[in-house]
Amino acid sequence: MAKGDRGARLRDRRTAGPPPAEPGAPLGDDLVQLLTPEGERIDRVTGPDGVEYSVDFSDSEYRGLYRDLVVVRRLDAESTALQRQGELGIWASLLGQEAAQVGSGRALRPQDMAFPTYREHGVLYCRGIDPIMPLGLFRGVDQGAWDPVEHKFNMYTIVIGAQTLHATGYAMGIAMDGKVGNSDDPADGEAVIAYFGDGATSQGDVNEAFIWSSVYHAPIVFFCQNNQYAISEPIERQTRIPLYRRAAGFGFPGVRVDGNDVLATYAVTRHALDNARHGQGPTMIEAHTYRMGAHTTTDDPTRYRGISEVEAWQAKDPIARVRAFLAKQQIADAGFFTEVDEQATAEAMSLRERVLAMPDPEPVTLFDHVFVDETPQIRQQRARFVEYQASFEGSGH
What we know:
Elements: H1 3-15, E1 31-32, E2 45-46, E3 52-53, H2 59-84, H3 98-107, E4 113-115, H4 121-126, H5 133-139, H6 148-151, H7 162-176, E5 192-197, H8 204-215, E6 220-226, E7 229-230, E8 233-234, H9 246-250, E9 254-258, H10 262-277, E10 283-288, H11 307-314, H12 318-328, H13 334-356, H14 376-390
Parallel strand pairs: 1-9, 4-5, 5-6, 6-10, 9-10
Antiparallel strand pairs: 2-3, 7-8
Helix pairs in contact: 2-3, 2-12, 2-13, 3-10, 7-8
């Protein structure tokens, strides 16, 4: 056999894996879904964990979820446009993942703590954080300006999977401090949720977090947004089994939810958080969703996926199905949808104006937050930098 043929066979063997599913193919009975892509409501469903899931929202709450979804998408689109126009260094879009984020974000109790990656703009919005905050980070004018303690929402984490260990340590601390609840009162006890993507499940940090949280029975929910791609690597090249089933190997339950269904995502996340809060330990949620846009604004998704796949997932759009449901049930009319669109546009334009008005920081401030207390080395570096800057004064540079 020729050397080139042998190399080709080895490459084929390395990339061999289970055959990819057809775009939009049904996932089977293990998927928790309360709202179909056509906007049909399912009253209750039993998940793979044996739990019966349902929601009981008022008409006003249904409309509120739709408003969240639309506003979050519009703000995300404006942020992408700002990056394309050179106003942000980079942006990680959540397009297509709005239901996974709004559903889980609204399921959090006020006392719960969230640990995001760098894409959880929808969760951030649901926690009441000004949406301009992450744009300061991506514009390079600050290190992320919100208060994690005040908002119960940690800083964005760029290192893939690292936040799961941070979240596990925080959850262990909650348990050791006696903050796990002893009653069914929702206000009793605290819980933690850690967000990550399907690609992060291949990282050692995530698996170490699973081990520690299981052994210490930590009050944590691992929320995996399976958007089908670890940048350009499709899910069928990442795992031989559904991701939620990995939880069983670590000794805690896992459940798969339709991540494009805001109602099911809310129900599953609220149940898992309540269990954690009341001493039932960790749960893993796999939110089966899709990244309709690029991984970040430095990515070109047309190089690794076809238009037919994207179109198949667009038919399961998380916002379109809620709109169809509201219209079919006569919960909202055309005037409401127009008003929401106008609000989303107004918030996006305000965000744009505020981003463009952000002042550039003085270069020397890059030394300000390296450590809590300035070290002699940092002090020396700062002084040298100031001297270096001063050398250009009057030179025209």
